[in-house]
Structures are given as structure tokens and as C-alpha cells.
């Protein structure tokens, strides 16, 4: 069984040290748009399955979730992706399609108690067919403004030690026109303060 279905508004469970149980957070019913840093999952729902036991976790558990959420008829059109802990949709999605993939999930569940998966109902991640979604919304953009298509990357799951050691890192603010102007103003103010301090130390000119 794929754990216990969490009711709406119910508090998440607390897992103690040494507990082999974990939670799977399923994002489903929506669709991916964009690519790279612009990728997002919209119009979806979130369902939590609590109390899954790592000792019995396998791909069968994911297949049961698919059936319980009424997506059994989608068959091969439905692809399941695991979002690696500490990473984003732009670079952290990895396909889960067999017991070999769920073994890695099982190995990290002793440290990561909330594993996040996404249902891709339109094979967007592998096919990057987002230009065909929502009536081709970028067709009217100037050619220079249209996003550059990227070739799909089929990457294997990293090993357990990499996943459990991975944590989000602070990213530097992008250098836009506004931040450039701010940096120039800061340097200008700094120079003016430095000149005023030097003049004060030197005393009034005779």
C-alpha cells in the first residue's frame, strides 16, 4: 500500500530518529511550461502519502499512487519525475521508471522525510514540447525574443551520498541595469565620504 492519504488541512506526521517511514509529496494534474530556469508546474494539485516504509518501498508504490489518483488510463503517456532534495525544477528532475530508481529514494529516506515527485502528463520534460502548450503562446513573439530550445538530457540518478549532502545554496542577485546603477551610486557615495573624511583630517586649507 502507498502509505496513508493525508486529509486536507491535516498536519504532517513527525518521524523520529531511526524511523524508516517517510512521506511522498505528489504534484499531479498540472503541466510543465518553460525550460531551464523558466520551468514551472502550473494548474496542478498536491497530494501527500504519509507513513511509507522504506523497507517495502518500490516502483509498485508509485504505480498504486497513479491508480489511486485516477491516472491509470494514461499508461505510457504519464511520466514520473523525482525532484532531488535541495534542487529546483530547472535542474533537479530525474525520471523514475523502475525499482532501480526507487532504491535510491529508499536510501535517502532516512535523512529526507518528504520526497517530492511530479507527474508529467504531457511528456514535457523529455520532449520539451512546451511551445505546443496553451495554443502556442510564443508564436507571436519577435524571433529574437523567443526562448531558445534546449535538447533534452537523460541523466541517471546520482548516488545516495550526493543527494543527502546536497542543500540549496544562496545565489547572487543577477546584475541587471538597476543593480548596476545601484553599484555605481554606492561607489560614488563611498568616494565622496572618503574625500570628506580626508579633508576633515587635513584641516582647513590656509
TrEMBL record:
One Pfam family this sequence matches: PB1-like
InterPro entries per record: PB1-like_dom_pln
Segments of skewed composition (Basic residues): 185-206
Positions of the UniProt region annotated as Disordered: 144-206
Domain PB1-like: 19-121
Official protein name in the record: PB1-like domain-containing protein
Source organism (scientific name): Eragrostis curvula
Amino acid at each position: 500500500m502507498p502509505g496513508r492519504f493525508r486529509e486536507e488541512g491535516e498536519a504532517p506526521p513527525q518521524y523520529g530518529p531511526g524511523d524508516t517511514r517517510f512521506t511522498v509529496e505528489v504534484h499531479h494534474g498540472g503541466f510543465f511550461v518553460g525550460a531551464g530556469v523558466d520551468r514551472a508546474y502550473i494548474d496542478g494539485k498536491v497530494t501527500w502519502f504519509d507513513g511509507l516504509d522504506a523497507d517495502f518501498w518500490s516502483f509498485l508504490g508509485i504505480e498504486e499512487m497513479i491508480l489511486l489518483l485516477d491516472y491509470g488510463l494514461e499508461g505510457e503517456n504519464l511520466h514520473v519525475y523525482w525532484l532531488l532534495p535541495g534542487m529546483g525544477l530547472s535542474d533537479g528532475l530525474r525520471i523514475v521508471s523502475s525499482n532501480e530508481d526507487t532504491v535510491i529514494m529508499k536510501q535517502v529516506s532516512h535523512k529526507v522525510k518528504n520526497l517530492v515527485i511530479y507527474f508529467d502528463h504531457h511528456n514535457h520534460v523529455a520532449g520539451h514540447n512546451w511551445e505546443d502548450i496553451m495554443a502556442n503562446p510564443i508564436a507571436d513573439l519577435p524571433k529574437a525574443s523567443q526562448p531558445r530550445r534546449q535538447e533534452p538530457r537523460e541523466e541517471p540518478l546520482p548516488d545516495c551520498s550526493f543527494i543527502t549532502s546536497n542543500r540549496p545554496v544562496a545565489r547572487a542577485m543577477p546584475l541587471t541595469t538597476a543593480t548596476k546603477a545601484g553599484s555605481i551610486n554606492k561607489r560614488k557615495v563611498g568616494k565622496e565620504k572618503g574625500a570628506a573624511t580626508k579633508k576633515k583630517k587635513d584641516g582647513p586649507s590656509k
